[in-house]
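quick one, two chains, predict together pls
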Amino acid sequence: MQILQALANGITEGAILALAALGITLVFGISRFANAAHGDYMTTGAYGAYFGTGFLGLSMPMAALLGIVTAAGVGLLFYFLVFKKLSRNSSAVNLIVSIGVAIFIRYSIVLFAGSEQYSYGLPILRAWRFGELRIFPMDLFFIGTSVISIAFVHIILRYTEFGRKMRAVADNSQLARVSGIRVENVEVIMWIMASALAGIAGILIGMKTVVDPLMGWNMLLAAFAAAILGGLGSPGGAILGGLIIGISQEMSVVFISETYKVAIAFIVIAVVLLVRPWGLLGHREAVR
Amino acid sequence: MKINKQSLKTIIVLAIVVGFVATAHAADFKVGALNPLTGVGGPYGPGMLQAIKISAQEVNHAGGILGHKVVIFSEDTQTDPDAAVRAAKKLIEVNKVSAILGTWSSGITMSILPLTTRAGIIEMSVSGAPAISKIGKQTGLVFRTQASNTMFGIVFAKIAIKEGYKRAATMAFNNPSGRGNTEEFAKNFKAAGGKITGSVVYEGNQPSYRSELEKVLATKPEVIVLGSYMKDTTIILKEWYQLNEPVKWIAPAWAVNPKLIKTLGPNVTEGIIAVDTVPNEGSEAYKRFVKSFKKVTGMEPKRNPYAAMVYDQMNLLALAAEAAQSTNPKAIAAKLREVSGPPGKMVFSFEEGVKMLKAGKKINYDGASSAIDFNASGDVSPTFGVYQVEKGRLPLKYTMRP
């Protein structure tokens, strides 16, 4: 029963992690770098929503929408201000600059909102019991939101004109350009999507825990790990990676030790990458 | 002489650098304020920095330390040991400070102690880890105005016994302070006849502690004792309330504070016991500090107990330098114990103390945070306050000596 409970807890953790990893992997697929500011885009979304509930008095759904728009806006802003101009530079340059962007966003938030913790003031609901198993109603909401968002992204990538263009750019951007695809437009829409996903993930974490300036940054390492585990650039891999990390962390509390649960998740990653350096669902070509 | 553009630029840059260095000239007494301006200590750091500045201003107003003006260099630990080490290096190597004040959280104090020890400067913290006492005893350069976790553990155990609990579990944030609190509690609780049903040590900065919580709840304790911080405690209590398992809580007051109660609401937090040292309310130093602190920050000093603690650190540092008639950190450290405790005339401010010292008298500084009589390890022994959440408020129930 303990195992089943840990599995349920792990799925919730994994669902949110997958959402964060999906945004990272989208950016990597198109713009070819690991965006260290992604965690702080998540924080931006969470604060945007807090601004909605705490200051404007909006209902939670409206505030969440505001948060998502804010995150997307900030992501787009830094694309135009920074990453677009650096697109010819190596991925290492972009990664380092994105760390700078991350710090800039974080301390701008501290400047305006302080470093105290906030909450959306939502009611805290008691668990539903199914025998010994206890399910938090909010967790079902988190998993549901995550599944719907991921499905939405999947449909766009698989079944739309834009999705085909995006996959073409991800495969080979020069060839895509020669075939008449406007790569810049694809990048703009990709950044909006990835940042909006960050916003959603941030708001979910804010609802589950508290809103504070480090919330996104603290999630970033795990989200990176999930994206790498699944194979950078592979949306399906990001989801799988998130779930594996979430579940293995919770399982290790039951079987090994809660103190090392983070370390154990990383051992799992190390082992997987030793066997498959390109990640679970990544392409072999991605390894350079 | 013809000066080309390049060398002109060099000269200007040089002039600026020289000017910059000269503004912080050798005659100043340089002190590093290394506070948690962001991160989990964020609610306290900015107030602590202000408190150090208030004291420095009082010292400068009274003529400075042996005529030297006190200059404060502020750095942010981000409540992160890595960032704290970088900041401490900068304070030591670039600013050449004589002391680093106000490190919060034991993980941080422990990580910068090797640096301050090697540089031979004074380190004053508000951290509680028992290991800090050992280093203090060896080097004579380490002091703290916060009670050690050993004392917190003793007080936690006394409270649990007084409240009639027989079965307790512990949950600790994985750092020297978190573990210190709960391990000392377990030792003393068992010695008093109590039973420890379970204990977990968790890694911080997680979005959920539910599996850890379920693990200790499964051992059926009557009370869970926490060695934790505000953010993780908020998440743990939120998940506990959702789980709907009756249990009581005893936590340090830096974790269970008005901000946490506001975040979770009165239903979740009702009855939780929070423990911290109480400020030295009878002291003139406290009254004066409260007035200045309210004026400068507009905040209630009771919500930030560390502010009074670091205010005392700066005052004591200045008094010890006067007593030593030296600005050498080792000479100052050697006098800190003497000016902090008996025998000597009771003084409540730098200004008063300097007058006494100049008159050739011994002094005993009675601080805003506690009476502050440093022992051989640089530790203090304050009075503890036991608070209990009641309808969203946190009134003092009783006080206790370890």
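DSSP finds 15 helices and 14 strands in chain B.
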